[in-house]
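Two records follow; treat each independently.
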Amino acid sequence: MTGEPLLEIKNLDVDYGLGDEAVRAVSDVTLTLHRGEVLGLAGESGSGKSTLAYGMTRLLPPPGVVAGGSVVYHDPERGPYDVLELSNEELRRFRWAETSIVFQGAMNSLNPVHRIGTQLTDVIKAHDPKGSPHARLARARELLTLVGIPTDRMDSYPHQLSGGMRQRVMIGMALALEPKIVIMDEPTTALDVVMQRQILGELVQLRERLGFSVLFITHDLSLLVEFSDRIAIMYGGRIVEEAPAKEIYTNSFHPYSAGLLGSFPALRGPKRELTGIPGSPPDLRAMPTGCAFHPRCPKSFEPCAQDLPVLGVPDAPGGSDRSVACWLHPVR
């Protein structure tokens, strides 16, 4: 592990709707983000990745509601506390100062009628109203330099920047108050492959310099293998496998993980046929019995359709530092 636990998600449930009409989008998710690590979260669209991120930070739009579980943040000064139990004022201080989010489609989140410098200083002012305008301006210039943008772009409007530069501005904005955790929800989806690698490379360098932890959410498992320390795979609102990134890539245990890996071409080595995953993700309003992946799984057998596998440490060689929820790999 990279360090001691920083954020522990325990048995988190997230619903959309109330009562009999409620749909469970995240079910019994337990994850730990350690200090200084990059934890990747992968899965197809609709698997619950973004819902998990918004649920753990209490940013769910209605009718989303956290139905159970806890999100324990280990504050080095205050000690551990549950984010889900914070008051509105405490939650406001927690956001951006302790954890920040680069949203999906973040480069379109900038206000088109305000200059870049104004938007950066407004974020700093909102959380530090007693600071001087000069100090805020200096910090904004520092943030642009940090993400590789010339400071003369402070007076530019968003439409005068490329997509990659706007994305860098959003990453700089997320780092404005030096948070301990940065959650990145598919931040490079709208960018070309070269720009994706460039921005993620810079993000890794920033992580090494500043020491923050990253929860990186994407459907592109190839990105996570390259930049993450550990990877968790989601399917149907549940974690189905979690392991070090290299272990996922070389020896994935869950057939769904293997299917995701077979959906993108290898950068090196001999050519191979892309296999993909047949079928479609499950309808959350009518989940299959047993393992949610069994209707699409090429290795399903009798227990898969009947009983839900439990996420745990597999009783197999090399399984001590990973967990999996699959009947092919009985857990200890």
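The next record belongs to a different protein.
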Amino acid sequence: MPFCPECGTPVKVENKFCPYCGYKLEPVAAPQQRQAAYPPQQAQETIRVLIPNLMKSKSLGRTDTYNLIVTNKRSIFAKLTQQIMNETVNKRRAKAEAEGKGFFGKWKAQMQGFNTYTDWYADKTPDYTLGETQGNWAVENSAISNVRVNESKDEESGIETYYIEFTTPTGKFDFSMQYDPHEMLAKAYGGVMR
């Protein structure tokens, strides 16, 4: 059985595109002329961009916060939990203490933990991140057909909110955030970014 040269998924001889990643397949020689096909070595999944603090609306004005980990293959939406926040803050405080920083140095390191939790994922594989918390999920990058950003400014407070919509064959996913995501999203998704 042949395999997709892009992702290694077994494919049928008559497939023109990989059913898993959508890669355009080359025609395979007739069965009597074929040699045994072996799965290619899997390309390592690497993180391209990490976008923190995406807010997903829930009922009664509540929200869940996600960090978006975009790899060379997929986009992982990782739910930010209280445990992750606490452990990140504690690691930053311990690092500042090990570096000999005083009270204000430790406080500053701890406060940085409240803003982003991206360093939590530095030593974790994408598969680990996906399975780490109930509610984490992923979408293949090839399945994202459009990423749209709209912004709104509250006239009273002057606070800008950015609304992000991801379009996939299974539906649309909406998030909001408090800082401009255009540059990071363009780096992650390029041509599908609007």
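Discussion point: The CA atoms of residues 7 and 136 lie 22 Å apart. How would you locate this feature using only the token line?
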